[in-house]
Amino acid sequence: MSTQPTTDRPTGPARTATVLADGRELVYYDDVLGDSGYVHTTHDPRPLPDRFGPDGYAAGPRMRRDPLTGEWVPMATHRMNRTFLPPASACPLCPADPDAEYADGEIPDTAYDVAVFENRFPSLLAVPGEDESVQDDTVVGEGLWLDAPAAGRCEVICFSSDHDTSFAQLDTRRVRTIVDAWADRTEALAALETTQEVFAFENRGREIGVTLPHPHGQIYAYPYVTPRTEQLLTQATAYHRRTGRSLLRDVLDGELAHGRRVVLTSEHWVAYVPFAARWPVEVHLAPRRDVLDLPSLTDAERDDLARTYLRLLRGLDRFFVDPESDEPIPLPYIAGWSQAPAHDPRREHARLHLKLFSVLRAPGKLKYLAGSESGAGAWVSDTTPETVATRLQELLA
Question: Catalytic site residue 216?
Fold first, then answer.
């Protein structure tokens, strides 16, 4: 990969967009700023058929609405054949290696900083020309069984070309590039006609169910408002009608005033263990300023986020210690950005925040969602938020 001036944006990370062999979009984001960037390899030599051509998708994935909860459930049967825990020499997220036998990598260049591309095995996909209307398959009653195309979009974001690193091991310059990529993709995906909500997230660790160990996350553009966001908006809207105030604003101010569960503060960000945390380890990270989504963050807030988030992750990676080796246990976690939905009229009651949680409740012990949580949706915590906060406060002091 050579360094020459090439970029299509005057500020922020250098950005290079291309199309993979089957028609999926790929975008490189480079750490360098301004008018100097990398010349990337953009040609994908793989003999992949056009995904929307005769040998591609005959139809996109479908989704069905659960009449008992009102929730949409995509049926993405083609994902059963996706890549599962390949060795580093066969990882599709690693940069291209001309000397390797494996030639089915998703990124055609031999090096990159951050790369975002459409998932080859998407849970959500808008197929051109497909009827996107909701179908009613009800045989008794009215509107009981509703079916529709799962016409969204799923993207993969690779945080580094280094297969053996992790998000917490990145430097602040790289994390700043990732923040810009999150914001850029949120803006682009929210502009799609089918998008109702954009969710950027990372799954880390085998305990979480990660199938590709390369450091990466995902960005989903949902054609519906997700259940958790729907619940949040319902609560926030009712709270505003009752008090005239912002629920999420008051939650943040309340945590700051109380102080007991606050684990990390900076000029622009606050991290705290929520009052009713469900998971063994759970932390929320929120901006001090009222912000609806990632694209709305200022440069100063993005700079501060890169530093603060890294500090938080590095502390979390020391939360548990192996009793035999006395070495820290890298925390398996899910981290996802809650943003205002793209078009919902209640979006003004949303507020940007990150929710990070882990299924690890002790070294070698996982929290399994058994009868109470899975069967009834009735959570029972194995600890208290104050206990978790105390441990993090010690680590982050």
Answer: yes
